[in-house]
Design a protein that fits this description.
This protein has a domain of 133 residues: Tetracycline Repressor, domain 2 (Orthogonal Bundle). 72% of the residues lie in helices and 0% in strands. The protein contains nine helices and no strands. Helix 4 packs across helix 5, helix 5 crosses helix 7 and helix 8 runs antiparallel to helix 9.
Length: 198
């Protein structure tokens, strides 16, 4: 997004800065973390920081871009080999559940970020909306292969199940949250796959 050295291999310092900031932003929030903390943890100079990221906002956008690419990669892995759409949706759901069960899970990075950037015109807010639109479109496309006329409401239902699981997964027993989420997805898939009355 804001890579100053686009087309070149990212420097080790840039990777360290972004990796450090991403971990802190996800674990502690974005606004609560200052540049000085990131510089200290990444062990880079202020000059190095500003050479790669003209502002903290550029770093935040790079963080969100990295999360976006990671989730896209998970979805691509779930649909690799073009499984039947129901199996692809199950694989995406399982990937979401694995994330919720992972150590250090703190909810959805995008929902967390948008809570800190409520202004719809802010680039971070727009990055969140862009990601969510891509995810909804992807899920809608898969449901359209199951039952075209009900694809959009089914996809919105899926995304709401996912959002609820991501929010609850860092507050309650993640295994129970995942079990509830996956059961909800199965119910949705069954209703979409059931023969429709003529």
């Amino acid at each position: 997004m804001t890579r100053a050295d686009t087309g070149k291999r990212p420097s080790a310092a840039r990777d360290r800065l972004l990796g450090t900031a991403s971990g802190i932003f996800y674990a502690e929030g974005i606004h609560s973390v200052g540049v000085d903390r990131i510089l200290a943890d990444a062990q880079v100079t202020r000059a190095t920081f500003y050479r790669h990221f003209p502002s903290k906002e550029d770093l935040v956008l790079a963080y969100l871009d990295g999360v976006d690419r990671a989730i896209r990669g998970q979805v691509e892995a779930a649909v690799a080999g073009q499984p039947p759409p129901v199996e692809a949706l199950r694989a995406i759901s399982s990937s979401i559940a694995e994330g919720i069960r992972s150590p250090g899970f703190r909810g959805c990075a995008f929902l967390n970020a948008v809570a800190e950037y409520p202004d719809p015109e802010h680039p971070a807010h727009r990055a969140v909306l862009d990601h969510r639109q891509w995810f909804l479109d992807t899920i809608t496309g898969l449901f359209a292969q199951v039952r075209a006329e009900a694809a959009e409401p089914a996809a919105r239902h899926f995304v709401m199940l996912r959002d609820g699981a991501m929010a609850a997964g860092c507050l309650f027993d993640p295994d129970l949250v995942c079990e509830t989420f996956l059961r909800g997805v199965e119910g949705l898939l069954r209703s979409q796959s059931a023969p429709q009355p003529l």
